[in-house]
User: Fold this.
Amino acid sequence: MSFSFIHITDHHLPESEASLVRGFPPVHAFRAVMRHIAENVAGYTDFIISTGDLVETATDVAYRSLMHMLNLRGDPVGAPGPLLVSMEGLYEFPLYCLPGNHDDRTSFSQCLFPKDPPRPLMNVAFVHKGIQFVCLDWGPHTKAVAHSETLDFLMRSLQADVPCVLLMHHHLVPTKSRWLDEFIADGVDRFWDIVAGQNVLGIFCGHAHMTYDRVVENIPVFGLRSTAFQFALQDEPLACLLPPHYRLVTIQNGVLTTRILEVPL
Assistant:
């Protein structure tokens, strides 16, 4: 069995399409990314997954603006989706969504997944063509927290006799940027103890606004640039203008490969 999906992250969409965040137009960039996906890879991919920070400020107005832009079709579904998106050349294209630290869990659920009762942590899983996608929530704060609830959910999920892909907002491995690496959970070693030796094909993260790949415990770990502004690789915070990335992921015969696509703005 073979299929492909797309990873995007950290959109930081404001309440109005014309609004700027740190002097940057996130909606313009997000639309450009979705249009690039529609024109180049949507025809042979099964879905998109966003690993959080959908909005910059978690208000109902911001989420309603997001829903209007996505032009969602179909009946409400449970988290993490898929939502059916029709925009920029995509038509009823499946989109799975995780919350990030900028997303209020209650507003996120009530607006995007009204069938679900709000929950403080969105730990959920779904299966696609024999692969289990495990969505892990490290909490609503800038610094990740290794919640027992999240790690217990991970442990239970890995007991299924299927290959897994792990999805999360917060990053797990050092980026070599001091201020960003302070946001890694203090108890992250417990996570690695749980996944070591398990059938995990890959781990996909956001939060750091940087594209990278690492291997930890023989598991590939992938970070990704934001669809909005990026951060410079230095010890102090500095937003910089770099083209956004999205990642095309293919799983074939139990082997995961990825390719980065850059979107000119």
In short: The two ends are 35 Å apart (CA to CA). The chain has one domain: 2-262. The mean pLDDT is 96.
